[in-house]
Amino acid sequence: MSKIKIGQVGLGRLGQVHAENILNHVKGAELYAVASVVEKELDYARDALGVENCYTSYTEMIEDEALDAVVIVSPSGFHAVQITQALDKGLHVFSEKPIGLELENIKQVVEKIDHNQDKVFQLGFMRRFDESYQFAKEAVQNGDLGKITAMRCYGIDPSAGLDSFIQFAKNSVSGGIFLDMSIHDIDLVRWFTGSEFKTVYSLGNNIAAPELSECEELETGACLAELEDGTIAYLLAGRNAQHGYHVETEIIGTEGMIRIGNAPEKNLVTVYDKNGVVRPTSGHFPERFKLAFINELNAFVESINKKEPSSITGIDGLKSTEVAIAMQESFESKKIITL
Ligand code: NAI
């Protein structure tokens, strides 16, 4: 079977992870072309990755008739239009989250995805491909926890990245902490419970990074939510974990509970020294979700080859964005929002 020819847009923080994964860990695909607005990144693609087809324009890249699929890892504000353009060219699409930043826009993209059922569309909710989350999902599906009553989700970026985020936030739109970060937890809550969010109430502050107030961003954002089936969810997102990259999920059921990433352990090592007994922690998302990022791209290519829809659809993108936008609205209005 010939390899799926992928054109990737964006070679930044996450783009480089995806590009190297396609090159080294996705057997069924080839990194055929890349697009980036940064010359240095294209040099890296040519020199370090051996990509021959390098473009400064995404629209030019997708003109290439040889392409089968695109992987979109550009800033979030470009996703909606780039997904649409790729589908119009008859390409399969893997897009990073979120699907877009504005609801009307996203609804049009989802309609476009619906009208192109013969093309695979997959959204980058990579946590669903992490082996610990898959283990937990199986336990929930087997009924090991009974009925889910509550979930608690933490997603806190490392303090080491806070300064660069402040610089980023001054120049670009992330969509805000709920759309940028909580969206992963929103997706997990929907995935584990099979239920939709009904009401949300959010709070936020910039105690750890007052500069973020100037660019209307939050360092910490939290939300208490009720789902249609009565499940309670508490979601906390932040950008200042001093100990590393902290992603933790707790699922409480009538027959038991599960914690994933209770402590963000790097490996099985424990250090005993003058600092006491220390467990090294994972430092950033590419480290914690290394295999999940590989697995999600392999699943995308497998769906293309098998001509099957992916497990993470446009509707997952739309629903999670609706919740994230409601969370932002609740924070701004200080009101409970009903979806
Ligand atoms: P970044 O700012 O580091 O990189 C953005 C890249 O897009 C750069 O290569 C830049 O040259 C390129 N770019 C910008 N405008 C462009 C345009 N008009 N045409 C072509 N290329 C353009 O951003 P980062 O952190 O890599 O994030 C990219 C996306 O990935 C975001 O949507 C973000 O939400 C998502 N992301 C997802 C994560 C996850 O856990 N699944 C983790 C980090 C980011």
Account of the protein in words:
- With 339 residues, the chain is of the alpha/beta class.
- It folds into two domains: 4-119, Rossmann fold (3-Layer(aba) Sandwich); 128-289 and 320-338, Dihydrodipicolinate Reductase, domain 2.
- It contains eleven helices and 15 strands.
- The chain has helices at 13-25, 39-49, 58-61, 79-88, 103-115, 131-141, 162-171, 177-193, 285-288, 290-306, 314-333; strands at residues 4-9, 29-35, 53-55, 69-72, 92-95, 121-123, 148-158, 197-205, 220-227, 232-241, 246-253, 257-260, 271-273, 276-278, 337-338.
- The strands form three sheets. It has a seven-stranded mixed beta sheet with strand order 12-11-7-10-9-8-15. A six-stranded parallel beta sheet has the order 3-2-1-4-5-6, with helices on both faces. Strands 13-14 form a two-stranded antiparallel sheet.
- β1, α1 and β2 (29-35) form a beta-alpha-beta unit.
- α1 (13-25) packs across α10 (290-306) and α5 packs antiparallel against α11.
- 1,4-dihydronicotinamide adenine dinucleotide is lined by residues 9-15, 35-38, 41, 58, 73-76, 78, 96-97, 124, 126, 180, 285.
